Amino acid sequence: MNASITVAVVAVLVLAACSPSPPPPAAAGPATSIMPRPTERYTCERGTRLSVKLLGETAEVGVDGADAVSLSALGAGGTTFTNGRQTLYVKQGVVSWTIGRMAAETCKPD
Fold first, then answer.
1. Which helix (H) or strand (E) holds 54?
2. Which domain holds residue 105?
3. Residue 27 belongs to a domain
4. What is the pLDDT at residue 80?
5. What's the CATH code of the domain at 52?
6. Mean pLDDT across 19-39
7. Rounded CA gap, 33 and 64, in Å?
8. 10: in domain
9. Antiparallel, parallel or unpaired: β 94-99 and 105-109
10. Phi and psi dihedrals of 24, rounded to 5?
């Protein structure tokens, strides 16, 4: 009788090892981030409309429906992107846009 119980236990263990593991439990809610999503549309306080695509060391920014321009990140923080004339600031989820010496305008997601 002991041999048949041992065989049954071994068979159950073998089958359990072969079955796929269950998926990890679902998160309680969406993860929050201080950075905007990789591609986002914004409307700025003076009416400027931006299409922003963050690509790590660069950002592609379309202004008022025009073709996107490439802006390079300044420093390792990845919070300021510029081409020397146009500048995008991204800090803790807040986006600001400026051209040349104009005062920066704050932009909100559409």
1. strand 49-54
2. 39-109
3. no
4. 94
5. 2.40.128
6. 54
7. 26
8. no
9. antiparallel
10. -65, 155
* pLDDT for 94: 87
- The whole-angstrom separation of Cα 23 and Cα 57 is 34
List the single range of 8-12, 52-56, 60-64 with lowest mean pLDDT.
Answer: 8-12
Residues 90, 32: Cα–Cα separation, whole Å: 16
Burial of 10 (0-12, 13-18, 19+ CB in 10 A): exposed
> Does residue 49 lie within any of the structural domains?
yes
Let me know if residue 93 belongs to a domain: yes
Q: Count of residues for the chain?
A: 110
The answer on pLDDT for 56 being more than 70 is yes
Structure tokens at 91: 């800090």
Report the domain count for the chain. Answer: 1
Question: Which of 77, 83, 78 minimizes the C-alpha distance to 63?
Answer: 83
Residues 6+ apart with CB under 8 A from 100: 85
pTM: 0.63
Structural tokens at position 2: 């002991």
Tell me the average pLDDT of the chain. 78
